[in-house]
Amino acid sequence: MRLFWHQLRTEQRLFWRSREAAVFIFLFPLMFYVLLGSVYDGDYEGHSAQTVLLVGLLGYSAANTAFAGVALQLVFRREIFVLKRLRATPLPARTLVAAYLTSTLIVFALQACALLVMGRVLYDAELPEHPLGLVAALAVGAACFGSLGVAAAALIRSLEGSSAVVNLILLPMGFLAGSFIPRGEYPGWLQDVGRALPLGQHLDLVAAAYYDGGVPLWALAVLLGWGAAGLFVAAKRFRWAPREG
Known about the structure:
Elements (H helix, E strand, L loop, with lengths): L1 H16 L1 H19 L5 E2 L2 E2 H31 L2 H6 L5 H31 L7 H25 L6 H16 L10 H9 L1 H14 L5 H21 L8
Antiparallel strand pairs: 1-2
Helix pairs in contact: 1-5, 2-3, 2-5, 3-5, 3-6, 3-7, 3-9, 5-6, 6-9, 6-10, 7-8, 7-9, 9-10
């Protein structure tokens, strides 16, 4: 456990010292909320527009932090041989991975709290009806997106194109899933596309926990299926060093 806590402290220092990570991973969803929340108005299905946007951005933040953040950081560390050097130390691989993913969950937890506080203070957004259910929904989503982030890092072959690849996945998924505009406003076929995505299922889970405390079992099952697929790909394809050639 001593190695784990030491590595966890190291991961936290590395994250907060990186201005790029702090802006893209931590501040990006907060800036989205300030900008979009200032122009959204009215109600949607009995909830204020700012509350609906808050729920959407909580789901998006899980993907942004646990998927995009994990994928980009792992590719960066692999391509500059940091992962290879760490594997040569006495630090066990499972301890390194556990510390890194736990650090990511801490960042996401702080981000989610910041969004909730901003929503309440700036826009008088509704508070979740079942806070513990919301925490559980967000934790499940972050874990699944973390596994997908490791899988994406395993499939991305170079550092140069990693940011473009991740953003090409993340931003369209955010729009299609309904993070910024309620999915119910889309044509039927586009709603089906958004619902099939992992973020779409996660948003259904988060919305249910936020509004009434329910657990849509189908959304939970599909989301866990995406997470299991990510773990499978990561186990088969992840490398600690850059590919040769």
